Amino acid sequence: MSFFANVELVPGDPILGLTEAYNADTRATRVNLGVGIYYDEDGRIPVLGAVQQVERQLAEASKPRGYLPIDGMPDYTRATRDLLFGADSALVAEGRAATTQTIGGSGALRVGAELLKKTLPSARIAISDPSWENHRAVFGAVGFEVVDYTYFDAAAHGLDFDGMLADLRRLEAGTVVLLHACCHNPTGADLTPAQWERVIALLHERNLFPFIDMAYQGFDQGIAEDALAIRLLAASPIRNFVVASSYSKSFSLYGERVGALTVVSDTADESKRVQSQIKRLVRANYSSPSTHGAALVAGVLNDPGLRAQWEDELGRMRTRIHALRAGLVERLAAHGAPQYDFIQRQAGMFSYSGLSRAQVERLREEFGIYAVGTGRICVAALSAKNLDYVAQAVAAVS
Ligand code: PLP
């Protein structure tokens, strides 16, 4: 008799299933727009030059591989705080921000969720409708009741800001509100600076708890610009908030699992107590984070020359995404589909294209173009080579 005899099979992840189907497709023209990864013009995940340099230094030094502290490499967490809040942040100087190195942005969400479940046991969490699918799973897994707030206006292909404010206003005081700092996944619809100010004023007024997820810092406007929500929160009267951040995209280090959880407390003393709780959660989970990815990021961020090189490389990825958006819109119009001009107004790697499930199906069957059933496409998986082909196919099914 097996102890596992009655274990049920969980259906596979639909996005990973899409990649499997794409890999099995033998058409030379196949394109996978279902991914959440930035590819370069040659269809490869870039290895940034600044990262390569640190990699060479690390190989040369061949350092012993001891354990890191439970909350991670100090050079990494310090540099992360500076990227989030800016180097001259008063809040950081006051000792109110505690940063923990985590297993990617996903790990930051998980540890952050566990901390909040422990400290605010009866709170709910509100996530945008739609949101990155894993948000619901992560917060649900630690026992949170997950509710949605209105976010996207499908007809206008943009943010439904009035709907969002109305829903946030209805939330019970103490509710945790998950907000995407920039490059909203999956819609590509972001808040303007003025809209951020209004949301933050509302969070304060209604006593809601902000949980910021920033997985794409530098992919829309720039490092400081994309962190605006965090900087505005830091300058607001709100005393507590959480940030889950990730270097997966901004350093093109997906598999190295480099992320961070930053918790802002009211005082330095409170921050120490909160951090002690986080260390206990990490210790009982994976004990301590891994060295290599953090050493790469810290090596780049703490060397002025490499840091400048990274900012330049990140800027090139950002500029290329903007150019791909503009190119796609231009090619779509040339193929008789001018209605997609909104793609240029959306931000980051993704676009909610407005394509229906049936249109997505046709793209796959007739053209070998793979997109998520919701119509989400990864703009960063396009290139000069396939842009016209994709535009022609989208126009044909529209
Ligand atoms: N948050 C959002 C909105 C994301 O899109 C992603 C990755 O796709 C993550 C978090 C997780 O990042 P990581 O791959 O570093 O775990």
UniProtKB/TrEMBL annotation:
Query: Where on the tree of life does the source sit, at the highest rank?
Result: Bacteria
Q: Which keywords fit this entry according to its UniProt record? A: Aminotransferase, Pyridoxal phosphate, Transferase
Which residues belong to any copy of the Aminotransferase class I/classII large domain?
A: 31-394
Q: Which InterPro entries match?
A: Aminotransferase_I/II_large, Asp_trans, NHTrfase_class1_PyrdxlP-BS, PyrdxlP-dep_Trfase, PyrdxlP-dep_Trfase_major, PyrdxlP-dep_Trfase_small
Keyword Hydrolase part of the UniProt annotation: no
What Enzyme Commission number(s) does the record list for this chain? 2.6.1.-
Enzyme class per UniProt? transferase
Report the GO molecular function annotations: transaminase activity
Keyword Ligase listed? no
> Which cofactors does it use?
pyridoxal 5'-phosphate
Q: How does it assemble?
A: Homodimer.
Q: Which family does it belong to?
A: Belongs to the class-I pyridoxal-phosphate-dependent aminotransferase family.
**PANTHER family cross-referenced by the UniProt entry:** AROMATIC-AMINO-ACID AMINOTRANSFERASE, ASPARTATE AMINOTRANSFERASE
Q: What is this protein called?
A: Aminotransferase
Organism field: Luteimonas composti
Give the taxonomic lineage as stored in the record: Bacteria, Pseudomonadati, Pseudomonadota, Gammaproteobacteria, Lysobacterales
